[in-house]
Amino acid sequence: MTTLLLLRHGTSVNNTERRFSGQFDTPLTEQGRLQAAEAGKYILKSFPVTAVYASDLTRARDTVTPVAQALGLPVTLDPALREVDLGDFTNQPIQEYKALHEEIYRAFRTENKRLPKGECWGDVTERAWKAFQRIAAAHPNETVLVGTHGGVIRALQTLWQGKDPSQIDTTPEPTNASLTVIDCENGAVTVRLQSCNAYLTEPND
User: Fold this and answer.
1) Looking at the domain assignment, is residue 29 inside a domain?
2) Which of 39, 121, 152, 182 could be 148's S-S partner, Cβ–Cβ 3.0 to 4.6 Å?
Protein backbone atom coordinates (compact mmCIF):
# COMPACT_ATOMS: atom_id res chain seq x y z
CA MET A 1 0.00 0.00 0.00
CA THR A 2 1.23 3.48 -0.91
CA THR A 3 0.10 6.54 1.01
CA LEU A 4 -0.17 9.79 -0.93
CA LEU A 5 -0.35 13.12 0.88
CA LEU A 6 -2.13 15.60 -1.38
CA LEU A 7 -1.20 19.11 -0.26
CA ARG A 8 -2.97 22.03 -1.89
CA HIS A 9 -0.72 25.06 -2.32
CA GLY A 10 -0.85 27.89 0.18
CA THR A 11 -2.55 31.21 -0.46
CA SER A 12 -1.32 32.78 -3.69
CA VAL A 13 -1.31 36.33 -4.98
CA ASN A 14 -4.16 35.51 -7.36
CA ASN A 15 -6.17 34.01 -4.48
CA THR A 16 -5.97 37.31 -2.58
CA GLU A 17 -6.67 39.38 -5.70
CA ARG A 18 -9.66 37.15 -6.59
CA ARG A 19 -8.33 36.34 -10.04
CA PHE A 20 -8.57 33.04 -11.90
CA SER A 21 -5.24 31.26 -11.70
CA GLY A 22 -5.38 28.04 -13.67
CA GLN A 23 -1.90 27.46 -15.03
CA PHE A 24 -0.82 31.08 -14.53
CA ASP A 25 2.31 30.97 -12.36
CA THR A 26 1.16 33.14 -9.49
CA PRO A 27 3.46 32.99 -6.41
CA LEU A 28 2.62 32.41 -2.77
CA THR A 29 1.91 35.39 -0.55
CA GLU A 30 3.63 35.78 2.81
CA GLN A 31 0.58 34.15 4.37
CA GLY A 32 0.95 31.30 1.88
CA ARG A 33 4.57 30.77 2.88
CA LEU A 34 3.59 30.69 6.55
CA GLN A 35 0.91 28.12 5.71
CA ALA A 36 3.48 26.01 3.85
CA ALA A 37 5.79 26.08 6.88
CA GLU A 38 2.97 25.10 9.25
CA ALA A 39 1.74 22.33 6.96
CA GLY A 40 5.32 21.10 6.69
CA LYS A 41 5.72 20.87 10.46
CA TYR A 42 2.52 18.86 10.74
CA ILE A 43 3.51 16.50 7.93
CA LEU A 44 7.01 15.93 9.30
CA LYS A 45 5.55 15.13 12.70
CA SER A 46 2.77 12.88 11.42
CA PHE A 47 3.99 10.99 8.35
CA PRO A 48 7.19 9.12 7.30
CA VAL A 49 7.62 10.89 3.95
CA THR A 50 10.09 9.19 1.59
CA ALA A 51 9.56 11.19 -1.62
CA VAL A 52 8.23 14.59 -2.68
CA TYR A 53 6.49 15.51 -5.93
CA ALA A 54 4.85 18.73 -7.08
CA SER A 55 3.22 20.49 -9.94
CA ASP A 56 5.81 22.57 -11.77
CA LEU A 57 3.91 25.76 -10.94
CA THR A 58 5.74 27.85 -8.32
CA ARG A 59 2.94 27.97 -5.76
CA ALA A 60 2.74 24.15 -5.52
CA ARG A 61 6.51 23.61 -5.53
CA ASP A 62 7.12 26.21 -2.84
CA THR A 63 4.42 24.72 -0.61
CA VAL A 64 6.19 21.34 -0.38
CA THR A 65 9.71 22.78 -0.22
CA PRO A 66 9.84 23.01 3.62
CA VAL A 67 9.30 19.24 3.91
CA ALA A 68 11.73 18.42 1.12
CA GLN A 69 14.44 20.61 2.61
CA ALA A 70 13.95 19.22 6.11
CA LEU A 71 14.30 15.65 4.82
CA GLY A 72 17.02 16.36 2.27
CA LEU A 73 14.80 15.12 -0.55
CA PRO A 74 14.51 16.50 -4.09
CA VAL A 75 11.19 17.81 -5.35
CA THR A 76 10.25 15.94 -8.52
CA LEU A 77 8.26 18.33 -10.73
CA ASP A 78 5.46 16.94 -12.87
CA PRO A 79 3.40 19.15 -15.24
CA ALA A 80 0.60 16.55 -15.11
CA LEU A 81 -0.09 17.75 -11.56
CA ARG A 82 -0.87 21.29 -12.75
CA GLU A 83 -4.14 23.07 -12.10
CA VAL A 84 -6.86 23.00 -14.75
CA ASP A 85 -5.98 25.06 -17.83
CA LEU A 86 -8.53 27.87 -17.83
CA GLY A 87 -7.63 29.10 -21.31
CA ASP A 88 -9.06 32.57 -21.96
CA PHE A 89 -10.15 32.85 -18.30
CA THR A 90 -6.55 32.61 -17.05
CA ASN A 91 -5.51 35.48 -14.75
CA GLN A 92 -8.81 37.31 -15.30
CA PRO A 93 -10.85 38.86 -12.42
CA ILE A 94 -13.18 36.12 -11.23
CA GLN A 95 -16.50 37.89 -10.63
CA GLU A 96 -16.30 40.15 -13.66
CA TYR A 97 -15.31 37.38 -16.05
CA LYS A 98 -17.90 34.91 -14.71
CA ALA A 99 -20.60 37.53 -15.24
CA LEU A 100 -19.32 38.44 -18.71
CA HIS A 101 -19.21 34.81 -19.88
CA GLU A 102 -21.93 33.27 -17.73
CA GLU A 103 -23.08 30.52 -20.12
CA ILE A 104 -19.55 29.41 -21.02
CA TYR A 105 -18.56 29.22 -17.38
CA ARG A 106 -21.75 27.39 -16.40
CA ALA A 107 -21.13 24.75 -19.08
CA PHE A 108 -17.55 24.37 -17.85
CA ARG A 109 -18.74 23.79 -14.29
CA THR A 110 -21.78 21.60 -14.90
CA GLU A 111 -21.49 20.01 -18.37
CA ASN A 112 -17.80 19.07 -18.54
CA LYS A 113 -17.27 21.53 -21.41
CA ARG A 114 -13.83 22.94 -22.24
CA LEU A 115 -13.19 26.61 -21.73
CA PRO A 116 -11.98 28.45 -24.86
CA LYS A 117 -8.32 27.43 -25.37
CA GLY A 118 -8.47 25.48 -22.10
CA GLU A 119 -9.45 22.17 -20.52
CA CYS A 120 -12.57 20.52 -19.19
CA TRP A 121 -12.72 18.68 -15.86
CA GLY A 122 -12.55 15.33 -17.63
CA ASP A 123 -9.17 16.34 -19.08
CA VAL A 124 -7.85 17.24 -15.63
CA THR A 125 -9.16 14.04 -14.06
CA GLU A 126 -7.54 11.84 -16.72
CA ARG A 127 -4.07 13.40 -16.65
CA ALA A 128 -3.95 13.80 -12.88
CA TRP A 129 -5.14 10.27 -12.13
CA LYS A 130 -2.55 8.83 -14.49
CA ALA A 131 0.12 10.88 -12.68
CA PHE A 132 -1.02 9.68 -9.25
CA GLN A 133 -1.10 6.06 -10.41
CA ARG A 134 2.40 6.47 -11.82
CA ILE A 135 3.69 7.95 -8.56
CA ALA A 136 2.07 5.23 -6.46
CA ALA A 137 3.55 2.51 -8.67
CA ALA A 138 7.03 4.05 -8.35
CA HIS A 139 6.83 4.08 -4.54
CA PRO A 140 5.25 0.85 -3.27
CA ASN A 141 4.71 0.77 0.49
CA GLU A 142 6.00 4.34 0.86
CA THR A 143 4.52 7.67 1.91
CA VAL A 144 4.75 10.34 -0.78
CA LEU A 145 4.00 14.06 -0.48
CA VAL A 146 2.41 15.60 -3.57
CA GLY A 147 2.05 19.37 -3.92
CA THR A 148 -0.80 20.20 -6.25
CA HIS A 149 -3.90 22.34 -6.73
CA GLY A 150 -7.48 22.61 -5.54
CA GLY A 151 -8.97 21.72 -8.91
CA VAL A 152 -6.83 18.62 -9.24
CA ILE A 153 -7.72 17.33 -5.77
CA ARG A 154 -11.38 18.12 -6.29
CA ALA A 155 -11.47 16.40 -9.70
CA LEU A 156 -9.87 13.26 -8.28
CA GLN A 157 -12.19 13.17 -5.29
CA THR A 158 -15.13 13.40 -7.70
CA LEU A 159 -13.70 10.41 -9.58
CA TRP A 160 -13.11 8.38 -6.41
CA GLN A 161 -16.70 9.02 -5.37
CA GLY A 162 -17.87 7.44 -8.62
CA LYS A 163 -19.22 10.68 -10.03
CA ASP A 164 -19.01 12.15 -13.53
CA PRO A 165 -16.67 15.14 -14.04
CA SER A 166 -19.74 17.28 -14.71
CA GLN A 167 -20.65 16.80 -11.03
CA ILE A 168 -17.49 18.45 -9.71
CA ASP A 169 -19.49 21.17 -7.95
CA THR A 170 -20.97 18.51 -5.65
CA THR A 171 -17.47 17.93 -4.24
CA PRO A 172 -16.20 20.53 -1.72
CA GLU A 173 -13.09 22.44 -2.78
CA PRO A 174 -10.06 21.88 -0.52
CA THR A 175 -8.83 25.02 1.23
CA ASN A 176 -5.37 26.52 0.80
CA ALA A 177 -2.56 24.45 2.33
CA SER A 178 -5.01 21.72 3.36
CA LEU A 179 -4.05 18.07 3.36
CA THR A 180 -5.92 15.15 1.84
CA VAL A 181 -4.49 11.70 2.56
CA ILE A 182 -5.22 8.64 0.44
CA ASP A 183 -4.10 5.03 0.55
CA CYS A 184 -3.61 3.29 -2.79
CA GLU A 185 -3.58 -0.49 -3.07
CA ASN A 186 -4.18 -2.65 -6.14
CA GLY A 187 -5.77 0.25 -7.99
CA ALA A 188 -8.21 1.01 -5.16
CA VAL A 189 -8.22 4.30 -3.26
CA THR A 190 -9.21 4.87 0.35
CA VAL A 191 -9.51 8.49 1.51
CA ARG A 192 -8.13 8.63 5.04
CA LEU A 193 -8.16 12.40 5.60
CA GLN A 194 -9.93 15.10 3.61
CA SER A 195 -9.03 18.79 3.38
CA CYS A 196 -7.50 19.01 6.87
CA ASN A 197 -6.16 22.45 7.82
CA ALA A 198 -6.37 22.30 11.62
CA TYR A 199 -2.62 22.96 11.83
CA LEU A 200 -2.91 26.44 10.30
CA THR A 201 -3.02 29.60 12.38
CA GLU A 202 -4.44 31.53 9.40
CA PRO A 203 -6.66 29.24 7.32
CA ASN A 204 -7.85 30.70 4.06
CA ASP A 205 -9.80 29.46 1.05
Assistant:
1) yes
2) 152
